[in-house]
Recover the amino acids of this structure.
């Protein structure tokens, strides 16, 4: 099974519209890098301009979160119907959402179903904290996060999972390639149990956490790592271009 690798940039809560436009200009040509799916995830306010900039190009646009309901009295939230007007993918359950906004596995199960219902390709983020790793809880945490979010329903189409150890995010201290491979292989084994081997084999699993142009090739050399979810380095056009090219070169 060959899985097209993914280079996903999570811009988080950064930049003005002018800065988002400048970043897009700096990424010129990224859509011509063959055999990799490029995903850009700006803030909600930047989504329309980023979508317009890349219209017709081979670049996917992702929201960083969304609500489960199509509409209603949920002040400050963005619905899947609204998101689908400006994006085709959505990042769900990023550790910052779990940590600061109380998102739990049950809520993510509903969000995954909502993404499926509105044809948004989900990137479900999972990963253990430093304390959980120290207490040898990594596999148990990943099993729970993946299996509760997926529930008993069929896999959402195009499902992508990002393994992002919390201790590696924004710290400059990436997991080792071996640690990333062990976690991603474990996630694939959980997918095999819940969805069956054939489907599990098609799910793309990304590594995220302090990915940069120098360490990406070692992650891509791992059999169960199918790309990267990049935070800080995705805000620098040259770095994200280099990461994307390295991902393409790994195929
Ligand atoms: P980082 O963030 O690349 O800055 O570590 C990754 C993420 O949060 O998705």
């Amino acid at each position: 099974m060959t899985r097209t690798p993914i280079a996903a940039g999570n811009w988080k809560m950064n930049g003005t519209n002018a800065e988002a436009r400048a970043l897009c200009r700096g990424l010129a040509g990224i859509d011509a890098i063959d055999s990799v799916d490029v995903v850009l995830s700006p803030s909600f306010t930047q989504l329309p301009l980023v979508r317009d900039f890349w219209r017709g190009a081979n670049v996917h646009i992702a929201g960083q979160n969304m609500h489960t309901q199509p509409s209603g009295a949920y002040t400050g939230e963005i619905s899947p119907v609204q998101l689908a007007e400006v994006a085709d993918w959505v990042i769900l359950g990023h550790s910052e959402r779990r940590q600061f906004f109380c998102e739990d596995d049950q809520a993510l199960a509903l969000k995954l179903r909502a993404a499926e219902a509105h044809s948004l390709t989900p990137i479900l983020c999972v990963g253990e904290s430093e304390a959980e790793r120290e207490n040898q809880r990594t596999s148990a945490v990943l099993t729970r996060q993946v299996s509760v979010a997926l529930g008993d329903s069929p896999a959402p189409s195009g499902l992508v999972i990002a393994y992002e150890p919390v201790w590696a995010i924004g710290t400059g201290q990436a997991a080792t390639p071996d640690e990333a491979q062990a976690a991603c292989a474990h996630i694939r084994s959980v997918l095999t149990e819940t969805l069956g081997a054939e489907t599990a084999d098609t799910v793309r699993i990304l590594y995220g956490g302090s990915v940069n142009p120098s360490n990406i090739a070692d992650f891509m050399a791992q059999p169960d790592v199918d790309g990267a979810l990049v935070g800080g380095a995705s805000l620098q056009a040259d770095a994200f271009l280099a990461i994307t090219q390295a991902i393409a070169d790994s195929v």
Q: What stands out?
A: The two ends are 12 Å apart (CA to CA). Strands lie at 6-10, 37-41, 59-63, 89-92, 121-126, 160-163, 204-208, 227-230. The pocket of 2-phosphoglycolic acid is lined by residues 10, 164, 169-170, 208-211, 229-233 (CB under 6 Å).
